[in-house]
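Appendix B. Raw example, untouched.
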Amino acid sequence: MSRKSEKQVAESLKQIAAATAGTAVGGAIGGPGGALAGAAVGPTLVASYDLIAARIASQRAARSNEVISTVSSTLGIESEQLEERLLADDRLLEFAGRVVRAAQEISLTQKRRALARSLAAAVADPDPARLDVWELLQTAIAEIDPPHIRFMHVISSARPLPKPPSRPDDSVKYGITLDQVCSRDPGLEVGAYAVLQKLISLGLVESALNGMIFGDTHRPYALSQLGQNLLTLLVDDPSPEP
């Protein structure tokens, strides 16, 4: 079998991603352009939208290639070997398609690299239970924005509650409050509550309450284990164990 380039493997995964989404890869790009053409817009405007569509397609292709390159280099294998591993496991293959599809839509390099690292970790150990966690992380990475990442960096200094059967120590302060997060990063103050609620809904932040404190503003929070794993993916370190 001839050796395949990262571009060829990425192209195959883009098709898998499209199949997972139930739509053609180019449909989302060409659709609006086709609709505009059908609306009898002028040829100059049509040409302009063709250029936009071409630029978007080019960006998506580059981002797909970037994922394959990052995964291959992280694992220390050739793209062809990566393809063989993906084809040998249907669930892993579908996860790879989801990662590539998500990466195509993301402009933030940090998030795309985190997605690639999650895929690399899944390929390295495709155990179903671990893959469950990587799928949760893939969803979370796709849904968070820079303010959420900043919030997570600030709150990462907080001590979370110990896991059962350990018991909290009354003399230890666990977590930090929303007010404390904003005091450390004032730029988060506007919208901080919405950022917090999003992180909680994704399972990335959890209550570190040890005793009765009323009101969300005064309730302490800390990164969950899932949040700690995701933050590790977002920095230039090896992928964590889920």
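End of appendix B.
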